[in-house]
Amino acid sequence: MQGSINTTAEGTLNLAQEEAHGHHEEHPDHRMFGILVFLCAESMLFLGLFVAYITFRLVATEWPPEGTPELEILLPGINSLILISSSFVIHKADTAAKQDDSKGVLTWFGITAIMGAIFLLGQGYEYANLEFGLRENLFASTFYVLTGFHGLHVFVGLLLMLAVLWRNRDPKHYSSENHFGIEAVELYWHFVDVIWIILFVLLYLW
Amino acid sequence: MTTTSKPKTPLPEEPKMLLGNERKWTDYFTFCTDHKVIGIQYLVTAFFFYLVGGALATVMRTELATPAPDIVTPDVYNGILTLHGTVMLFLWIVPAGAGLANYLIPLMIGARDMAFPRLNAIAFWLIPPSGLMLIGSFFFEPPSAGWTSYPPLSLTTGALGEGIWIMSILVGGTASILGGLNFLVTILKMRVPSMPLTKMPLFCWAMIATSLLILISTPVLAGALILLAFDLLAGTAFFNPTGGGNPVVYQHMFWFYSHPAVYIFVLPLFGAISDVIAVHARKPIFGYRAIAYSSIVISFLGLIVWAHHMFTSGTPPWLRMFFMITTMVIAVPTGIKVFGWVATLWRGKIAYTSAMLFALGFIALFLIGGISGVMLAAVPFDIHVHDTYFVVAHFHYVLFGASVFGIFMSVYHWFPKMTGRMMNEFWGKIHFVLTFVGMNLTFMPMHELGLRGMNRRIALYDPQFTDLNVLATIGSYIMAVSTIPFLINAIWSWRYGKKAPANPWRALTLEWQTLSPPELENFEELPVLKTGPYDYGLGYIAEEDPEELYAHAVPAPVS
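The joint structure predicted for all components is written out below.
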């Protein structure tokens, strides 16, 4: 690009320029960093809701308010185990993608998606069998809004996985060099998982 | 600061480049991913909302010229008050700051665009619907609970207007978060290889601090608004005391965003003024590192002071003590900045351009707002003047005196870069004088009104306050008139102004080392730093007589 002969120092600088210029179509990929920053911001949203819940609870004279039926813990416990183990399953998909194994991606993403769907169904079943509604009292409202908001995130995760599976129809779409979509969904899924663990402790165990 | 590797190239003569840096006006109405187009889209949209918010303010001041409700009914006044606050904060200052950041960050750090150009365009295009929704609500049922929307008041003033308000803020907040994410990643990851963090222009430092605040605090506001929406629309009682809820939790969540938001409003302009002052005073900035790090300190402290808005909300005394002390401590990093700016001016070769005049106005007015801020931080004094016009005076000195003066300053300074045309300096100075006089005439009397006990946010007042209110109203008319020379100047200059050279102010930062306006991907070749961003007066760049320096008629040869 630069034809002239340079002194050594300038030459190095120009070389750096040339590299930056010549490759600027494929500039370094900051998408994973972007996703990470986004999830940090997203976690502040949940943190706000958690702290609101904790405050409601600590300020209340009686918690849960009188007459609230006990939460059943067995089904949500199983549900939590399914969601948490799916975090390990989705990591297998990432490993598969790094080995250019598009079938493996299909298998492990498929299993994760099914596990996520089971979680959502289980939560729907729990909602249907609870004895209190959204407007019953402050505890009921926080319970539904927190779990519902988390459920929405699980649902979005499912959609993302389906999108990855759709793109994965072309076995060359994801490769060991280029599998941002898979990594991003995996990170998101771990995030959703961690949020659930905190939520479970706050709502069911505390 | 820089030279490209072919320093002698006569830039404007090459036809290829003229093609590259010209934009059709229709480009500004498209989903364009060029950060320069998006920056201008932000700025123009924000300015439109500024005119709307200003018109609302003028109606309010007209109403307040007399103690009786004679222009609008108190109900309508409440709606106007709410919209004025919301429009000015969320649709004028925040997008204007985002516009400057969008335009300047990639140019200042030598990048070709933002890290995520498409996300950037999406973030911008969320603003118009958010704003139009909010303004449109005025014709059905305006939200009337003030820009803070405290429940339980906001739950009783009408679900439609309040619902639109929540929706609008959620959409605008999303735009803000996506923008902040983009700024942060761009600044951290896309600098030219020769630019370490400590050689960045101070505007970029300020934008790191701003982006961190946006990313940390805006989601919490979203959480509060989601809960408020449930209360409003689904009949829950998170914040409604009659159903067992706790309205103070809303206040905490709201101010956890809205106090840092004050720094989101003003930090970008703190950064911009650091750039403007050094250039127009022809001196290296005083205390580069102190100014840079104080931005970060402000953003950290800004996150732990929110409850000083709630000294009268039953906040326990020990907590008030904590928030009083942290609030007062913020005066230290801001004081460092003001000291740095004043020390930069000291014995500089100051050119009194419009940009510099607005910068000087900024420092003076921000100082007043800062001092009244420390007064308000003191719990006993705050309890005395809570919800009076003293508070209104304080935050207008900060938000108008600093943020709006800063935005005008930035427009005068970077207009040549953005449009390739110089603005008219004479009308710029008229604009400054009118704004400065009008601003002080409007808000200075409010200190006294507040100390005498005039309540804010109410359409009626005791007749004993009439005189000072008339004065404030006259001031507000002067401010309204002051917009006219700016508007005409900006539009006229954009079309017919003198052609701007690449570097009209002889600045060293990277954005001035390319064409005006910059070509499509900013730099023909990525620049390499040879000097720091503020090495003025050290022989790196021609120092001419300031008077000559600013009287440009023809494109100057680019060095």
